[in-house]
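re: the backbone from monday

yeah here it is again, tokenized this time
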């Protein structure tokens, strides 16, 4: 019997967590599935682990390739899919036993939904629950005009999508650290994106993850996530989609600063002045957002870029300016608590400075109370 679900599981040097991840997939209440593990040039025992499992379970398929990154690994997996549904899974996360049963039932009941994720609990790097539960909105609505763009909120490792829809949008594109957001914008043009309210997996949060590893990865995510939103803007407005290849994207990513990374992209893309101003502002705002909860902080050069981006005239939706002011004040207050007064003042400006000072003082009182 053909598999009902193909699971794409990219893995790179994942020997520490891979077996638990694969076992959680194979233990599903709906067992009519195939696990396609894409070994993206690992140098550890990743491939051996998969081979060992495959010897006792024919539903496991190993595909090895030279290291090329997550996008090439995902597209290599998609090329091997033949089931009605395609699911995503990461090598360090864990599925709840009824994940696929619930996701299949939802898509059967709602044919207008093209892609689905769901709620998840968090675990740390050692697999210990953190106590946090993430419940994204059931309707994954979004706004690509907002800065930073309000992206469709689907947790990528628990994505479940109709294969025909994935193939219709031609899979993943070279949007480094934001390939999921770019995919969601394109899938949203075909139908609804949604989330189950049920907890369908355990999501591993650790500093070594791609999005948390460094401020450089934060800059990459900021730039490419907002390029994905700008692509959606252009398609919705009947303009040509943004066009760039893997080599160009990799060259942008190699830039040492936010100014250089954004500037390289702007030099290669045929954007209007208004689009360029929006992109710079959205990138600045996205990095501020990321630094607010990731284990890194913006640099002096980042602050200079942000201050200039906020000074440029940009047309934004109602309420966006207020949200951006709060974000700037929160970032500046964080910098002020770190003793970086000059950067905090430049980022906030005189209008926001009283709020920044108040936020910084409240933060000091909180830490004094709870760290005493």
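seq for it, each position gets an aa:
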């Amino acid at each position: 019997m053909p598999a009902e679900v193909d699971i794409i599981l990219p893995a790179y040097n994942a020997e520490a967590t891979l077996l638990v991840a694969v076992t959680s997939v194979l233990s599903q209440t709906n067992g009519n599935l195939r696990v396609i593990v894409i070994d993206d040039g690992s140098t550890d025992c990743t491939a051996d682990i998969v081979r060992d499992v495959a010897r006792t379970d024919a539903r496991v398929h190993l595909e090895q390739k030279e290291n090329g990154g997550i996008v090439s690994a995902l597209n290599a997996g998609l090329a091997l899919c033949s089931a009605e549904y395609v699911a995503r899974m990461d090598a360090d996360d864990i599925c709840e036993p009824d994940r696929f049963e619930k996701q299949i039932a939802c898509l059967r009941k709602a044919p207008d939904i093209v892609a689905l994720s769901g709620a998840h609990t968090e675990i740390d790097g050692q697999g210990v629950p953190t106590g946090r539960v993430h419940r994204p909105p059931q309707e994954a609505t979004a706004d690509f005009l907002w800065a930073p763009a309000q992206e469709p909120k689907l947790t990528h490792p628990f994505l479940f999508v109709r294969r025909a829809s994935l193939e219709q949008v031609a899979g993943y594109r070279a949007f480094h650290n934001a390939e999921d957001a770019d995919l969601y914008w394109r899938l949203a043009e075909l139908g609804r994106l949604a989330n189950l309210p049920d907890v369908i997996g355990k999501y591993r949060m650790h500093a070594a993850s791609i999005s948390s590893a460094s401020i450089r990865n934060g800059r990459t995510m900021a730039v490419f996530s907002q390029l994905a939103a700008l692509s959606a803007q252009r398609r919705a407005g009947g303009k040509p989609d943004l066009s760039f290849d893997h080599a160009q994207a990799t060259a942008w990513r190699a830039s040492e600063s936010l100014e250089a990374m954004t500037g390289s992209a702007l030099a290669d893309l045929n954007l209007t002045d208004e689009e360029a101003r929006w992109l710079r502002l959205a990138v600045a705002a996205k990095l501020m957002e990321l630094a607010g909860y990731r284990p890194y902080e913006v640099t002096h050069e980042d602050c200079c870029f942000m201050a200039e981006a906020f000074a440029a005239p940009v047309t934004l939706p109602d309420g966006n300016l207020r949200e951006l002011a709060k974000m700037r004040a929160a970032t500046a207050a964080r910098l002020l608590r770190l003793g970086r007064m000059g950067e905090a003042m430049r980022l906030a400006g005189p209008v926001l400075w009283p709020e920044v000072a108040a936020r910084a003082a409240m933060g000091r009182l909180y830490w004094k109370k709870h760290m005493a």
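The chain is about 50% helix and 15% strand. The domain at 5-204 is CATH 3.90.550.10 (Spore Coat Polysaccharide Biosynthesis Protein SpsA; Chain A).
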